[in-house]
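subagent[fold] <- orchestrator: predict structure for attached chain, return tokens only, no commentary.
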Amino acid sequence: MKNFINKKWQYYLLGGMFILLIAGIAMFFSGSGSQNGSGEGELRTIGELSKKATGVNIDRSKFLVAGVDPAYPPLTFISSDGSRVGFDIELVNEVGQILGKNVKYVSIEWSKKDDYLNSGEVDIVTGMTITKERKKKYAVSKPYFQSSNVALVAARSVVFSANDLQGLVVGVQKDSSAASFMSKFNTADGSTVKDVVEFDDVSEGLVAILTGDIDAFVEEDTILRYYNSHSPGKFRVVEGIDVAKAGIALVAKKGNTKLAGEISTAIDKLSANGTLKVIHDKWFGSRN
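subagent[fold] -> orchestrator:
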């Protein structure tokens, strides 16, 4: 038990390093402005949102409530001045404008996203990888960009390909598409990894790489490339873990096809007028 407690404190302390790092990066992209969508995305705790700003207490004809992972750069994260920034934030703000709604943001634990949707605490969840299973589980918008899985390893790691993961311990975010992918993962010769460890968020997994608790962390390439590019000398990206690209979408509660359809129409408009490309290139560059 003592070792477990000490290890958790390591995660918390080192995790703080990533939080401060990403907050500083956010200031570069956002300047002094706040990406809050008509001034309505102020930061609140989950408890405050539950009591004051979600569910039946919000006029859904005027507001769109979006659930976001607060530590998932460059899609969604919180800058040092407390404002929400990222690709998804800018996208949803634009979608909200097209729908004629202000946007409220709720920080969610990714593994509990279904609870937020089903309870009505949020209308949509951002940054969802589209899979066959999820199409049956949610009302899914059309994709707004494409992504695939890569691995992040320590800079001095001997892992250079998917086959090198044989017999190693690999981390993933709990209830993510990467977790589903790794549960079925085999190397070219049919071998498997030693163990797959789930973490509540990506930053915890990256800390576990630095502490030696896992050998690699698998997640969407846009996320891990971002962490890697802003953590010089600490990590290295390993390509070819999952060559298939998947669409990333906004999802609503199952059955709410009306909202998903309206969002898809808004995404089409943003694509047609060039806004989607501008936001994409700002956060990802023109690689994808």
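orchestrator: received. Logging for downstream: The CA atoms of residues 222 and 284 lie 7 Å apart. The chain has two domains: 32-146+247-284, 149-238.
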